[in-house]
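Usage

Read records sequentially. Each one opens with the input sequence:
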Amino acid sequence: MGQKTIDILRRVRMDTALPVLIELFSATKEIEGRSPKTISWYASMLKPFAAFLGETATIKDLTLGNARAFIASLRARKVRYEGHPRRKAEIGGLSPSTIHAYVRCLKVFGSWLFDEDFLAANPFARLKRPKLPQPIIEILSNEEIKLIFAGINPNTYLGARLYIIAMLLLDTGIRASELCSLTLQNTHVREGYIKVMGKGSKERHVPIGTSVKKALVRYINAWRPEPGEETIDELILSVDGFPLTYDGLAQIIKRLGRRVGVPRLHAHLFRHTFAVCYLMNGGDVMTLRLMLGHSTLDVTLVYMHLAESHVQMQHSKFSPVDRLGIARKRRTR
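and closes with the structure output:
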C-alpha cells in the first residue's frame, strides 16, 4: 500500500468515534490472546478518557494536550472508587499507581493507533508516567502465618478447601487468578509441580513442596466435591461443584483474615510473603522471576529490596546490643 493511499485512509478515519476505536482496540487485544480480565481492564481505563472528551469525540481529539488535561483531572479528584463494581466510594484522591495505570493504558492505546495506521505517530508517546513511590510491604510474619493455619479446620469441606488454598498460595506465590484456573490435569503431584496459566496466556511450571503434595492428595481424594458438570476440571470448587471465582476467593481469604486476627490478609500478600521468604532463605532472583511469571527482571527486583528492608527491620527488633541495653561508657581516668 502506497503512502498516498495510507494518508487518504487516515483522513477518512479521522471522523471515527472514540467509543468505536475502543471497541476495535479491545477486539484486537482479544485476537492477540489477551485474557478477558486484561481486556476489561483496558476498557475500564479508556472509557473515562472517552467520557472526559465528550460524546462527540473522534480520533481528532486524541492529542497530547487532551491526554494531559485528562490526567490533570484525575489528579484533582477528591473521591476514589466512584462507580467501582465491588468497592464503595471513599473520600480521597487517586493513588500514584492508579494514575500510572491510566497513563500506561493511554500509551498502549496510542501505540495501537499508530500500528493500525489510524495515526502517523503515537499521540501519547511523550505523556509522562508519574513517579511511583518505593513500595513498602510488610509481609506476613511467622506468628501471623501460624495464626492463619491454626484458624483453619482441615477436617471439614470448607476447611480442607481453605487449607489447600492457603498452602498453595504461600508455597508457590501464584496469583489468585492462576489458582482459580488451575486444573486437575495440570496438577502434577507425583512430579512435584503445577502448570499455571499466567498473564498473556503464558504457561509456566511452578514447583510445590512436600507438605503441599500431601495436602493436595488429601484434598483431591477426600474433600474435593463432585464437579457440577462433566467438563469442569478446576482444582478448587465451590460447594455446588463449580469453579471458585476470583471474587469468591478474595472474600474467603478476607473472612479468614478477620477471623484469625490478621485483617490485612489478602491473596497477593501470600505472593509477597513467598517471594521475600524465598530470597531470604537463599533463593536466587532469576529462578524467582520464572516462578512468579514476571516478564522482566525489574518487577522481581522489587522483592530483593523488600527482602533487604525486612532484614533491616528484623535487626532493629532483635539487635543483641539494643535488647541488652548495652550503652557505650566513657572511660574514666
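Summary fields computed downstream for this record:
- Confidence is low (pLDDT under 50) at residues 4-9.
- The two ends are 94 Å apart (CA to CA).
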